[in-house]
Amino acid sequence: MAMTRQLTLLLFGSLPLLTAAQSKHPNIIYIMCDDMGYGDLGCYGQKLIETPNLDRMAEEGMRFTQAYAGSPVSAPSRACFMTGQHAGHGHVRGNKEYWSGCQRNNMFGENSDYYIIGQEPYLLSHPIIPELFKQRGYNTGMFGKWAGGYFNLDHPNDFALDSLGNTDTSKAATTSSASLPHRRGIDVYYGPICQFQAHTYYPNFLNRYDPARGDTQMMTEVLEQNILHKAVNTGDADFENRTQYSADLIHRYALHWLDRQTSDKPFLGIFTYTLPHAELWQPNDSIVDHYHKAFEGMPEKSFNTQLFNWYYGGTDKHAQFAAMVTRLDAYVGEIMDKLKEKGFDENTLVIFTSDNGPHEEGGADPNWFNRDGLLQGKKRSTYEGGIRIPFIAKGPGVPVGTINDHQLAFYDLMPTFLEYAGFDARPYSMKKAQERGATDPTQDYYDGISFARTLTGKKGQKKHQFLYWEFHETNMMGLRMGDWKLVVNGGKCHLYDLKTDLHEDHDIIADHPKVAEKMKSIIRNQHVKSNLAKFHLSLPDEAKEK
Question: Is the pTM of this model over 0.85?
Fold first, then answer.
C-alpha cells in the first residue's frame, strides 16, 4: 500500500438516523486492536503518529473520552466484552495458557511450534455476543485473536465436557476446548486462536473456519512461504525472509468476508486486529520508510530479540510502532471504503477501540510517544493508563462530530449491541440479572448497562454507580464511582479525584475516609473468588489486616 493511501482522509458523508425504509436490524462492525493506548491517535492528542482515517471517523461520529477496557490485559478484557461480565464475576481472569510444555520440533518444515495453542475457554454455560446475534439471524464473522479457548492440532475435532457442561480442561492433552469460534456462534473465522501465537507477525500458521472453503472443523492454515525460513524463536536473521505478514492476511480475509455479505441479512463482524502489539516488525514498505524519515535526528529505541516471547529485535522501534498504528489506521479506512462500496455505510455501526492500555513489550516506548503524560499507568495496571482506552463510534443515529464523557466499560457492549440492533437487551443487563435474583455470577450474572441511548444522542441514559477492575498477576484492583477512583495495589488503597487529578498523583484517602470505606465495601462485594487465579489477589486493606 502506497503512503498516499495511508494518509488520505476518507471522504465518506455523515450518516442519517435510521428510517423506516432502512433495515430494522443494522449491521455492526466492532474493531478492537491490541494494546493501543488512550493517547496513540491524533484525535486523542497524538502528535507523532498520523491516523487520518480514525481522526475522520471521530469527526463524523462520536468520540468517547471515558471509555474503559474490561481488564488491563488481553484475555480477561476480551472476555468482559464477550460475556458482559466484569473481571470480578467472569470466569477468565488472566492469560492462562495451554501451550506451555507442548512444543514439538520440526512441526512446520524445520520449525518448532506448539501443538496445543490457546487460553482458558469461555464457559459454555454463559452465552457470548456472537451466539446471541447468530440466534437472532445475523451472519457472524471474526478475524484476529480469539483468546477464548484452546486448540489441539492433534485433536481438532475431539472435545470433552465436565459435569457442568463446560470444557473439561483436564483433558487438554487429548482434546480441543469446546469453546472455539465455530462452536460459539461464529460463521467464519480467520486468525490466531492463541494470543501467544500472535506475538509474531510472521507465524508458521493461522487458524481458519470457513464453510465456503469446505471447512467442517477448525483448520490449521500453514503459511507455506514463511516455513521455508527460520522462525523468530531461533534468533536466526533468516526470519527476515518471511513475507506472509499475518496482520495483512487477517485484514484481507475480513474484507473478503465483507464482500460476501448481502443486504438480505444483517451481519456482525468482530475484527480483533493484532496491531500494534509487539512484536514491532512489519513489511519494510513506504509506511515504515515514512517514519524513518520523519524521526530522523530524533531519539530511536533499540531492542534485542526475545526468543521466548517471539519478539524480533531492531534499532528502529519508534518508527516500527508508529508505522504499525498508521497501518492499522489504513485498515480502518479500507473497511469504511468497503462498506461504502457495498452500500452498507448507511446501515452499519462501526466501533473502534483497544483491548487495554499501551504496552512496553518488544521495544515499545509509550512514554516517548505520549509526552504530555496525560494518564498514569500502562498495560497490567488499574491506574487510568492501563484501562482507559480510545473508543470511537460511527453509524446510523450516532450524532456527527460529538465528544462524549459517558462512563462505559467493555461489559456494557453486550446489552448495547442488542438494544442498538433492535432486540430486547434486558435479559442481558445488570438490572434484569438483579431482578431475577442471580446467584451464580460465572453463569447467569451480567454487569453491563446499555449505552445505546448515548450512542444515538438520546436523553435518559442510565449510568453505572461504579465501574470495577481486578488483575491477579499484578495484584491490583480498581473502582471508579463518579469522579472518585480507588486503586488497590497489593491490598493498599489509594483514592483520587479524577475531576481534578486525572494523572492520579495525589492520594487523598486520608481526607475522605467515608468515601474510601464505601468504595472498599463495593470492591469486596463485587469480587468473587476464582480458583483459576495463579496469583493471590489482595482485597482492600488485606495486607494491613494480616
Answer: yes
